[in-house]
Amino acid sequence: MAGEPEPISPAARRALEQDLADLRAERAAVAATLGRTDSEGDRADQADELQRADDLTRLDDRIDDLTVRLRQAATAGPPAAGVAGVGSTVTVRFDDGTTQELHIGEIADEDDSALVTARSPLGRALLGRRGGDAVFYDTPTGPRTATVESVGDAPAD
């Protein structure tokens, strides 16, 4: 995560903390299975052991990422009033004239069709913007333009 630390909403913080707890529990379960062979075993056993070791590395990397993200968010503090950040609700007018209220989030949520993640092209374009600002972002069909109509607080949990 490059640049200045981005603040996150209380709901995003809770989601990241829960994800971190789940990853730590999964890591403990995988780590407990390593080295449990009483004999040398066959190649399949060795391959399984290597896969679990790879899983541990993947889990450790994700745990480190989330720990750093939570630390950065604490350093950044809450989003500034009137400036789009993680946790903000942003009303956007797209270049086709439609208007939509979007929530900028840290983690994708399939149940929230109005959520854009801060890492998506539109989410990155919205970060740091104020009402009246034009934003430019890429889509699979080409570059697009939108205008920030307004920036508000995070939606109520």
Automatic annotation (TrEMBL):
<dbReference type="InterPro" id="IPR036953">
    <property type="entry name" value="GreA/GreB_C_sf"/>
</dbReference>
<dbReference type="InterPro" id="IPR023459">
    <property type="entry name" value="Tscrpt_elong_fac_GreA/B_fam"/>
</dbReference>
<dbReference type="InterPro" id="IPR022691">
    <property type="entry name" value="Tscrpt_elong_fac_GreA/B_N"/>
</dbReference>
<keyword id="KW-0804">Transcription</keyword>
<feature type="compositionally biased region" description="Basic and acidic residues">
    <location>
        <begin position="37"/>
        <end position="52"/>
    </location>
</feature>
<dbReference type="Pfam" id="PF03449">
    <property type="entry name" value="GreA_GreB_N"/>
</dbReference>
<protein>
    <submittedName>
        <fullName>GreA/GreB family elongation factor</fullName>
    </submittedName>
</protein>
<keyword id="KW-0805">Transcription regulation</keyword>
<feature type="domain" description="Transcription elongation factor GreA/GreB C-terminal">
    <location>
        <begin position="82"/>
        <end position="151"/>
    </location>
</feature>
<keyword id="KW-0648">Protein biosynthesis</keyword>
<feature type="region of interest" description="Disordered">
    <location>
        <begin position="137"/>
        <end position="157"/>
    </location>
</feature>
<feature type="domain" description="Transcription elongation factor GreA/GreB N-terminal">
    <location>
        <begin position="7"/>
        <end position="73"/>
    </location>
</feature>
<dbReference type="Pfam" id="PF01272">
    <property type="entry name" value="GreA_GreB"/>
</dbReference>
<keyword id="KW-0251">Elongation factor</keyword>
<dbReference type="GO" id="GO:0003746">
    <property type="term" value="F:translation elongation factor activity"/>
</dbReference>
<feature type="region of interest" description="Disordered">
    <location>
        <begin position="32"/>
        <end position="52"/>
    </location>
</feature>
<dbReference type="InterPro" id="IPR001437">
    <property type="entry name" value="Tscrpt_elong_fac_GreA/B_C"/>
</dbReference>
